[in-house]
């Protein structure tokens, strides 16, 4: 039986065509190299001798591996973004769900958010700003995106086992897409996330913290005029509960020097979760 074997040498992966034969004397399977094929990322099925190309194991290997080649993945992502945008505009949520499910089987939900969804949100915003799509179409697209994110959250929240995290926005904020993406990414890591809606009064935010007992709080601020309100909220939460607080959003990027607390820029989700686990910092802000 012939199959492919990957061998790693000093961080570089090499591909070999090998076969196994039963050694009757030693009563064990013996592996023999048929051909060295080259560096794994450079090998195609054409490098395999013709007599072995029809092997199911070998053809399946190349069928699966090709999706993880950067060029193929980039082309797939561009096409998927175009197809998703078309389905959003037409209000075809069923097709959008099918696109998500197909992509997730190969690359996973996290890749869908980072590589497909976040850049697509930026494209939709650009189309709206340049008047290439009207406000109604833009809103329809954002609603469809939230629908997909809710689908991912439902899938990831079956057995949450890590931290409890509360996400909120200060008075005056109306955005939900950024906090929904954050909620989705944190949920995918096995956390229980309470994402409070816009216009939730400060008193109810405090009640939610009291009731849900989160391990940390995220405050998202998009508009510069809401920075003062966000600062007051951070002060209240820190004074009463002493929880780690992460403050993020476009307003923080533009006004990070105005915060009289440590600034931690461009923190990844794993890094944030590690900080939450350690609880070494009481107030953190992340742009």
TrEMBL record:
Pfam families: B12-binding
SUPFAM superfamilies: Cobalamin (vitamin B12)-binding domain
GO MF annotation terms: cobalamin binding; metal ion binding
Domain of life (superkingdom): Archaea
Domain B12-binding: 162-283
UniProt cross-references to InterPro entries, sorted A to Z: Cobalamin-bd, Cobalamin-bd_sf
Listed name of the protein: Response regulator receiver domain-containing protein
Organism of origin: uncultured marine thaumarchaeote KM3_84_A09
């Amino acid at each position: 039986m012939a199959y492919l074997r990957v061998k790693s040498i000093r961080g570089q992966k090499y591909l070999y065509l090998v076969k196994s034969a039963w050694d009757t004397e030693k009563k064990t399977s013996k592996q023999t190299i048929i051909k060295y094929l080259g560096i794994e990322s450079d090998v195609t099925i054409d490098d395999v001798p013709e007599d072995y190309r029809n092997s199911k194991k070998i053809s399946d290997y190349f069928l699966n591996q090709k999706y993880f080649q950067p060029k193929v993945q980039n082309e797939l992502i561009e096409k998927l973004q175009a197809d998703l945008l078309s389905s959003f505009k037409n209000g075809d949520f069923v097709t959008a769900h099918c696109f998500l499910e197909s992509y997730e089987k190969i690359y996973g939900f996290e890749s869908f958010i980072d590589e497909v969804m976040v850049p697509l949100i930026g494209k939709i915003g650009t189309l709206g700003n340049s008047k290439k799509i009207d406000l109604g179409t833009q809103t329809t697209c954002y609603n469809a995106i939230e629908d997909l994110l809710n689908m991912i959250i439902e899938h990831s929240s079956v057995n949450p086992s890590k931290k409890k995290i509360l996400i909120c926005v200060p008075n005056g904020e109306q955005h939900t897409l950024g906090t929904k993406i954050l909620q989705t990414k944190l949920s995918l890591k096995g956390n229980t996330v309470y994402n409070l809606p816009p216009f939730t009064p400060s008193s109810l935010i405090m009640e939610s913290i009291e009731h849900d007992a989160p391990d940390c709080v995220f405050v998202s601020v998009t508009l510069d005029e809401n920075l003062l309100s966000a600062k007051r909220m951070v002060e209240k939460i820190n004074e009463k509960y002493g929880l780690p607080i992460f403050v993020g959003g476009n307003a923080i990027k533009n006004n990070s020097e105005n915060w009289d607390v440590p600034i931690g820029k461009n923190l990844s989700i794993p890094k944030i979760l590690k900080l939450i686990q350690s609880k070494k910092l009481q107030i953190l802000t992340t742009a």
